[in-house]
Each structure stands twice: as C-alpha cells, then as structure tokens.
Design brief:
Layout (H helix, E strand, L loop, with lengths): L3 H11 L8 E4 L3 H15 L5 E4 L2 H9 L15 E4 L3 E2 L4 E2 L6 H10 L2 E7 L8 E9 L4 H7 L6 E2 L16 E9 L2 H10 L3 E4 L1 E2 L4 E6 L2 E4 L2
Parallel strand pairs: 1-2, 1-3, 3-6, 6-12
Antiparallel strand pairs: 4-5, 5-11, 7-9, 7-10, 8-9, 12-13
Helix pairs in contact: 1-2
Length: about 220
C-alpha cells in the first residue's frame, strides 16, 4: 500500500488547526515530517508560530525548513501538539516506534489541544493490538523484563551498532507484544512499574485525522 498521499493529506488537514502566534508541539515520524514541510510553506507566506519539537530528528528538520524552534522552558503554554501514531483506534494510540515516546507524551499531554495525524494503514479496527514501546532506565531493564515476562519483552536493538537502542534521554527502549482491551488501565499499570519512565500507550487526544489517497476523514 502506498501511504505517501495519505500522510500528506493528513498533514495538510492539520494546518487548518494552526493560527498565527501559536506555540506548536511538533511530534515525530514521517507524517509529522510532511506537516513540518507544509508548515514551512505557511511560514514563508507570513504565518508566525513557535515550535517545540519532541525529538532531535524533528528539531533538525524544523530548523532546516526555517521554522523557529525553542524548548519547554521558554514557553508558558503549548497551544497545540501535532503528532503521529504507530497504531490508533477511537480510544487510544500506540506510539514510540521512533524512540521519542517520553518527550512526545510530555508535549502532547500538556498541549491545550492534541491532534493526531496518520494514514489509513495505522488504523486498528476493534481492540488495539501490537507492539508497545517503553522507555526504561538501563539499571532497571532486567527487573522490568521479569515483571512483563508474559508479554514477550525485549530490548530494541538498532542496526549498524552493537547493543540496545538508546533514547534521546539516554535510556533503553523496551518492546512488548500486547492486546490492549483497556488502554487507560494498561497505561496506568505500566507507568506504575519502577524503572519504566514512560510507555507508548496514549489515551489523551483531541482528534485523529486519517489521510487517504484522495482526502481525509476524522476518526474522533
């Protein structure tokens, strides 16, 4: 399935939420990268916004496209967050495939409005099922894996390097396979395990824009 048009259409639809003078939380992933490039066109036309990126990758792309970026300590409020998802249904998202889940959740959950942009391939009909990412303190990783032994836990290993993937915060990324019938309860449970800094189950968002080949629709 060619998802490129869907990504662009979802990103373009999200521009309708952007107003002059806003502080925008920039998420991570390929659909957000399309949004950054489209936002840059609006900037060149005179739109004035400030962006708070959730990852080094998004930060560098924003700078390359001429966007004004800053950090959380330099803004009083985040008006809107635009972010993608690895999987989504009407009640929850799975995120963190890029390893930036902690910073994403901090920005997304603290924004006044959180708009999710995805293409149709990311929509999960029925119960949310798939890979759940967690950011884990290296010291705690063996103990966390024992706690989650029923979910096939494993440390993510990158290509081209030895050892586990390290997040922007200097921690390990743990992956588990889960069928999540109660996302809020599972999000809370994972958060309660000592050593897990954050998990990739997101249950707080405003709307989901789903891009298709010839347009978009809103799931929520």
């Amino acid at each position: 399935m060619d998802t490129s048009k869907g990504k662009v259409n979802a990103a373009r639809a999200a521009l309708d939420y952007i107003k002059d003078g806003m502080v925008i939380g920039l998420g991570s992933g390929t659909t957000v990268h399309e949004f950054i490039k489209l936002l840059a066109e609006r900037i060149r036309d005179g739109l004035r916004v400030i962006c708070v990126p959730t990852s080094y990758n998004s930060r560098m792309l924003a700078i390359e496209n001429g966007l004004l970026v800053t950090d959380t300590d330099a803004v009083d409020v985040i008006d809107i967050a635009i972010d993608g998802a690895d999987k989504a249904n009407e009640i929850a998202l799975l995120k963190g495939g890029g390893g930036a889940l902690t910073r994403e959740k901090i920005i997304d959950y603290n924004a006044k409005e959180f708009v999710v942009i995805v293409d149709e391939s990311k929509i999960c009909k029925g119960v949310l099922e798939g890979k759940v990412n967690m950011e884990v303190l290296p010291f705690a990783a063996p103990l966390v894996m024992k706690e989650l032994k029923d979910y096939n836990p494993r440390l993510r290993v990158g290509t081209g390097k030895l050892g586990p993937v390290v997040s922007d915060n200097g921690n390990f990324i743990l992956e588990c396979d889960m069928r999540i019938e109660d996302p809020k309860a599972m999000e809370k449970y994972l958060k309660s395990i000592p050593g897990i800094i954050e998990n990739g189950i997101f249950t707080k968002f405003s709307t989901i824009i789903v891009g298709t080949e010839d347009g978009y629709y809103k799931l929520v």
